[in-house]
Amino acid sequence: MPPPLAQRLLTPAEYLALERSSREKSEYVNGRVYAMAGASRVHNLIVGNVFRVLSTQLLGRPCEAYVNDMRVKVQRTGMYTYPDVVAVCEEPRLEDAVLDTLLNPSVIVEVLSPSTESYDRGEKFAHYRRLESLRDYVLVAQVTPRIEHFRREGDHWVLTEISDPGGELALPSLGCVLKLADIYGRVDFPANGAEQLS
User: Fold this and answer.
1) How far apart are CA 19 and CA 120, in angstroms?
2) Half-sphere exposure for 166 (CA within 13 Å, toward CB)
3) Domain boundaries defined on the chain
4) Most exposed of 44, 73, 76, 139 (fewest Cβ within 10 Å)?
5) 51-88 per-position pLDDT tens digit
C-alpha cells in the first residue's frame, strides 16, 4: 500500500468531503487516506470483461453490478474502498443521500497487480470478511489465467482455484457463471509470466 496522503488522521466525514470534491480516487483506512494508482490496459480489459459478463447475466433481475467507481464501506472497520467490480443481489443499502457508497455488497472482484496483490489477499480481505452481506470474494490474476474464489460457508471461507482455460467461475449468490475465456478475452499473457503489470 502507498504511504498515506496526509499525516493527520481524518474523520470519515472529512474523508468523504475531500473525496467527493476530488477528481482522483483514494481509499480510507484507520483515519488515513491512500491514493489509488492508475491501471494498465490488461487490468482494465479484465475488469471490463468481468463487468460486461456479469451485467449481461443480471439483466432483468433484481441485482446490480458496478465497476470501479462505486465506493464500498466496511461499517465494522470503517474502511472505504473502491473494488474493481462489486455486485449486490438485494436492495442496495447506501450510506447517505449522495448514493455513492454501498454498504451491502454480495460479491467483490479484485484484479491483482504487483503493487496491490499482498494487500488484496491480506489486510483488505480481512476488512472485507467483516461485511456480513459478502458471499463471494474473487481474485483475478493478470500474468496467468487464474482465479481464486473465496466463498463464505457459515463462519468459514472456502477457496476454489480455477486455472483450466475451459474453466468456469460459478457465483451462486448472483446466479451467474463466468467462463475464464470470457474473463480473459483479448488478454495476451507474457511467455514467462513475468511481465510487470499494474
Assistant:
1) 21
2) 0
3) 1-36, 39-183
4) 76
5) 999 999 999 999 999 999 999 999 999 999 999 999 99
Which CATH number, 3.10.20.540, 3.40.190.10, 3.90.1570.10, 3.40.50.720, labels domain 39-183? 3.90.1570.10
* Cell 503493487 found at: 115
Query: Three cell numbers at 77?
Result: 472497520
Within a 10 A sphere around the Cβ of 59, how many other Cβ atoms? Answer: 7
Helix (H, G, I), strand (E, B) or coil at 13: helix
- Look at the pTM and tell me if it is higher than 0.85: yes
* DSSP H or E run through 17: helix 12-21
CA atoms of 35 and 1, how far apart (whole Å): 9
